[in-house]
Design goal:
By secondary structure, the chain is α+β, with helices and mostly antiparallel strands. It has three helices and eight strands, in the order αβαββββββαβ. The protein has a domain of 67 residues.
């Protein structure tokens, strides 16, 4: 049955469906483009972070592992903007490490993570992760021993942190120069196992 414009109803329906399909494809391409730009920005930030650390490596007390917070404290870099939302990339979970003449970079921004990537690698994978917590969710989880310290019956740091960063924070807080957990005497060291899930997104 034709309407007053001379079109059958099913032709109108097909036209609407085609329009919706085209719109969906365009939106999908826009979202993919936005995701690519986000991931590309994060990758570039990780490379810049590594280059600044390697150029100024003699300025850091531990030349094996250098955290983003140390680089910021040293005035070598500003906070890295989180490309996936408000705020900045984690200063306590982002670091550059050196082992057997190789360099690796880790950068955590929101729930996205570049994890221990060889800086000479042509491909930098990005993962989606949860925050560290006490729950083992399914079979695909990571386990890590994190640290804090008791003083006057209270934990001195707001969260539990990696060993190397923990030592850096202790030295900064108490103006000490310890190099291992066993050397810490300013407070009572405590450690707990934490877990998180990690899923590759690109």
């Amino acid at each position: 049955m034709k309407n007053r414009f001379g079109f059958f109803h099913f032709e109108i329906i097909i036209g609407i469906l085609l329009l919706l399909m085209v719109t969906s494809i365009l939106l999908l391409n826009i979202l993919k483009s936005k995701s690519y730009l986000t991931f590309d920005t994060m990758r570039k930030s990780s490379v810049v972070f590594f280059k600044i650390v390697s150029t100024n490596i003699s300025s850091f007390s531990n030349s094996n592992v250098v955290y983003l917070q140390e680089v910021i404290d040293g005035g070598f870099i500003d906070k890295i903007k989180n490309p996936v939302g408000d705020g900045y990339c984690s200063t306590s979970e982002s670091f550059v490490s050196f082992s057997n003449s190789n360099a690796y970079v880790t950068l955590k921004c929101g729930d996205l993570l570049i994890d221990h990537v060889d800086v000479s690698s042509k491909r930098i994978n990005i993962y989606k992760v949860t925050e560290w917590n006490f729950n083992k969710n399914g079979d695909n989880y990571e386990e890590r021993l994190l640290y804090n310290c008791y003083e006057n019956g209270k934990e001195i740091f707001s969260s539990y942190i990696d060993e190397s960063y923990f030592i850096y924070k202790i030295n900064k807080k108490y103006q000490t120069s310890v190099y291992s957990i066993d050397d810490i005497s300013s407070c009572r060291v405590i450690s707990k196992f934490f877990y998180r899930t990690k899923k590759k997104v690109t």
